[in-house]
Design a protein that fits this description.
Blueprint (H helix, E strand, L loop, with lengths): L1 E8 L2 H7 L2 H4 L6 E7 L13 E8 L24
Amino acid sequence: MWTDYYLKFADEADFALNMPENLKVPASESHATDVIGALYRNDTFAALEGFHVNLRLRGNPLPASLSAFDIGTPAQPKRVFA
């Protein structure tokens, strides 16, 4: 079973510092990482705060070190895994 997580870091440097090295690889048998970066409002095209990353994990819970970056599932996600 796959579980999707929506993560928000302060910026790219925060992502680089806090994302585990094995999860920075775009995909493996156990995960998929979609580095989005900036997201924009649909109505004004203003940038939303943060550096956004979608993470899909297979059979494993979110690492505790990433729990502070988990924003939960957005009501209307801008980008999801197909």
